[in-house]
# Entry
Amino acid sequence: MKQSLETALQLAVDLLLKEHGVDVHVRVQLTRPKQKDHGDYAANVAMPLAGQLNQPPRVLAEKILSMVVWPDAVEGADIAGPGFINIRLQHASEAEVVKYIVHQRELYGCVEKDENSEKICLEFVSANPTGPMHVGHGRGAVVGDALGRILAARGFDVHREYYINDAGTQIDVLASSLWKRVQQLEGLEIELEAGEYPGEYLIEAAKQLLKDYSFGQLNALNHDSEKWPLLVDYAIDKMMNMIRADLAALDINFDHYFSEKSLHDSGRVDELIEQLKADDLIYLGTLPPPKGKEVSDYKPVEQWLFRTTRFGDDVDRPLAKQDGTPTYFAADIAYHVDKFERGFKRQIDIWGADHGGYVTRVQSAMKALTGLDKQPEVLLVQMVNLMRAGEQVKMSKRAGTFVTLREVVDEVGSDAVRFNFMTRRIESQLDFDLETAKQKNEENPVYYVQYAYARVCAILRKATDEGIALMAVDSVDTSHLTSDEEKRLVAALLAYPEMLDKAANRLEAYRLATYLMDLARSLHSFYHKHRVISDDDGLTQARLLLVRAVGQVICNGLSLLGVSSPERM
RNA sequence: GCGCCUGUAGCUCAGCUGGAUAGAGCAACGGACUUCUAAUCCGUAGGCCGCAGGUUCGAAUCCUGCCAGGCGCGCCA
# Structure
């Protein structure tokens, strides 16, 4: 509808421009006015046109209206305010959308994937395999998963990937922490050092390790060639199982878990560095001391630096540490280039806001190595403040008061976690209150929306109980749907595909959550003002069809958010 | 010091690739259950859109400066 209106207006505008012999293109863009007496759609073209043609906008709007050929569904159009063109549609035809929705079912709002679909590699979570996920990881996980579902629904070919940081010093620290726990279990007096992982979960892992191998067996192994690799693999395996279970509790799955270690083992990282040397993109140099931070032990050291400044970065970045081993950055470049070589020209990464300083250097590297501009597209998710009854939950790893994602999910449920994490733009910090998330009222949006769905189901059950047969969808007369509340619902249903499209194009998944809150509000409001089941058969059939369509859209939306749609509450 | 994000009603936030009278929930106050689920609804009240300039026919929205908060700034990931 929107499309055909824009096309009609565009033709008139182009004609007008041609008449004036002006060789510019002014694009028509329709908006949905907030005020309902401003019509169903509004165009502001006359205003920018006024600047181009040197005539008052209202006069130009008049001319456009005299030239435009509207599609049948348009009831009329008029000029208002400084020069807006307000378009009114025949509502009878708009209300027909409920039939379409009931026919389309879970496909309403979706675009089918085909061979032309754009391939997107969506990387999210990628939490380090050194411990359980925390609440902040959870937000990225939920946002990423919902975004993946939305993109897929809009016809993109989405591949979901988790990058496992299973290399580097942190992994050695993890393995040594595990080994100390094993030794402690054997009664040896050994303490963890600062920086080692103190969590309970490693004691559990150590116990399991001792079930699979005897202590004597482990001790007898050659430290570097046998025991250490075994400890490393064992620790990573245990941590990833734990993380996968945490994700499964939120119904989050990946197409591929990509190992950083595999990039090192296969020589991919070394190859990359060699290639960069050949391309003269790296050099031996020293970096200036870091700014704004007390650095007592800074020593200028010569190391391999990537000329990222040539591609927009602030400072050249090291690819190898002092001991000659590659940096995390080096492996990460290799990873993103690997994605490119696997055919992903579009990559979306979801990171925590604390990694924000990293975006430019990765994009610079990608630009240098693949020519891709602004890739990966990085979404930075701000932190989550965990609250309980209005008070911030203080967390400290050392004091053992660290609340894991799993504990939160177990306490309030997956639906509440998922929906609440989706209600705000990712740029905004999020207060997540455990008590609110358990409340069953409007303060907790997930119940508000789910209740609207349950309410639709209750109405349909009631109709069945009363022996009301649902008329064939296409024979229902939707012109009965004339009240403000009904028009509002119809308008919301019509807006669903547009909203999803916007959410997908702007990578803003929260739009779906706020849309559903609005739709639920309209449904509740309608419910209180009007009875669906009444003595008027024609009206009853029309309203039953309307609420079926609303229920369908709520269900479709919730499923894209990964939230359930209970039929009773 | 530099970079990124944020600043809108008492609170939590929408609105931000410029449009008409800046919206919603909570909290406050006043109403609505003999009815398809009151886990809901209706109404009232509440605003120098952080501050100051600028661009524009038009700025919460774009630009500049400042103020406040968050995150980050060596070969940790």
Observations:
- The radius of gyration of chain A is 29 Å.
- Chain A has a mean pLDDT of 90.
